[in-house]
């Protein structure tokens, strides 16, 4: 044993110095030192710890070439009055150089080491350290995303506090619900551009589901009203999907192959690099799956009768996804960026052999930024979103005796969105930032329902919607302790809707114009580097959906009735929170929130004989309120724990009108909002091996049509757990062979999402093999 001890100890000391002595390629321009160290982290994998106030007013020299981590840090910190020390093989502590005779104990306590602040952009449309943002903001970074086995990008949000993802239909159409405000009441952004259609009835695929999760650098989640910057449908908050930038190296290529037990199989590759003034990042992926099955005993809404025989066949799907970014530096002051993502998908819902779904979805944006000076810059962006899809329905959902499942209706969706934005950032003095901009959007949406057996067009809706917005925001920073943000946005809309309903044969038109102004203010105060409090107040709005105004499907089984008198929803939102760090590595954040929503729109569901009658109606008042608690604990330099808990009450807060049947009565919880939601995980990360054991819990929720939170309308609570691990084998400088394996839904929990008889994925084992060179 003694003979083995000395080589083992020597090996441990050697491992701690391998990264410090290995030459790495770095390219970091002169900039604020904190930002330079963050780029150093990203390019080398070395984690930097530092005293939060030690970077103030310091600028780094330019650094480009191949250096060891020690050489690079020596250059970056030259003349800064800072020193560094490797605490292990991949972590460096940076602190002030103390004068001889200083009280080391007192100064060490004063300069307690903290992780470099994450830089976020969504909450203010300007780059800010997350600890200085007045809104409640969270970031899901590239490493977290890479450690998940996802079906689509919505999966990366299932563990986020305050956020609920539910899937409707056996093809898995996802909805986003932040702070209980309801689906389609939170904005989805792609690279900062509003990506949803103003005709929110376009529902074949959520925007989040059309972006390749392996092409995502990070997802920023801002909870709380955001209409002051982003306009419509930002009542609950915003989710901004930010795709990957090109690496600084000349070229980095990563092919991969994946297989799971459904089975699903496929692969793809990414390649990117920087060549002088040109940069590129390109990704391609193709996956095929035989899908999965639901319960063999389908259920209907309570009170319905009848039996259904169904195929018991697995569903299946194919996805081809493309994405990337191209960048060109026109000059030292001007940059041009082009970003795109595209998905071609075909699906067959499980147990429903006659429900094929096909779609092509794309998002394209071109951004130009010019820095007139360090204090003033202008950014202009043009983006286009395309959504072309068809979905065939069978009569599985209709509560009547059915002996043969046949396709009944095919829904065609063709939606195009063109958006343009110009914004300017001006810093008239130190600590003062003024942001102002103009945003315009034009939507063209076409929806057609065709009876499959006869070819008769039963429902057609065309909608053209224009939205113009002007916004202004002022940010104030005082002594690195007080941060204030105030602003507002003025929006005006033009709706032009033309619908034809074959049964009865009617043409329904709606021309609507409305205007709205939405202010917002926020404040954060930092008592010290470890404790801060923040609060915000803001307003939001959501316009009625065109399909709710003019109605739609009218068949022997279901009728969607119009409601031309629908009013836009409006909201007043408040939140108050605290963040603090402890000396033993615990970070905690707690936030309370309250949303007061007027004229809340919800679809009522009533019965007329064998027909289901649907109609959107305004509820007089809805209140959503609750609390979010987030904890992370760094146990060792490799082990960490996280947990979060969200308590959400979302209830009708005023008596309903006599015509609002089938809706939750006063004091009862809204559909599809779990009162309790939690996530938890144990994470391990080292230079060679990383892994995670994590899970999520959701309490029971109620389906649409419920009026008094009856048990017969309740979907049960559930706990789902996942586990995976990755081994990285080095095969050269920054070259690795990666093997990932894991199991999703370890306990094979059958859990319902939005409708009775609809279940999410069973237990799935997977293997992924990747290479980087």
TrEMBL record:
It comes from the Bacteria. It is found in: Cell outer membrane. Transmembrane segments: none annotated. SMART domains: STN (SM00965). Belongs to the TonB-dependent receptor family. Hemoglobin/haptoglobin binding protein subfamily. This is TonB-dependent receptor. GO terms for biological process: siderophore transmembrane transport. It comes from Methylobacter tundripaludum (strain ATCC BAA-1195 / DSM 17260 / SV96). It is a multi-pass membrane protein. SUPFAM superfamilies: Porins. GO terms for molecular function: siderophore uptake transmembrane transporter activity. The lineage of its organism: Bacteria, Pseudomonadati, Pseudomonadota, Gammaproteobacteria, Methylococcales. Residues 46-97 form the Secretin/TonB short N-terminal domain. GO terms for cellular component: cell outer membrane. The keyword Transport applies. Pfam families: Plug, STN, TonB_dep_Rec_b-barrel. Keywords: Cell outer membrane, Ion transport, Iron, Iron transport, Membrane, Receptor, Signal, TonB box, Transmembrane, Transmembrane beta strand, Transport.
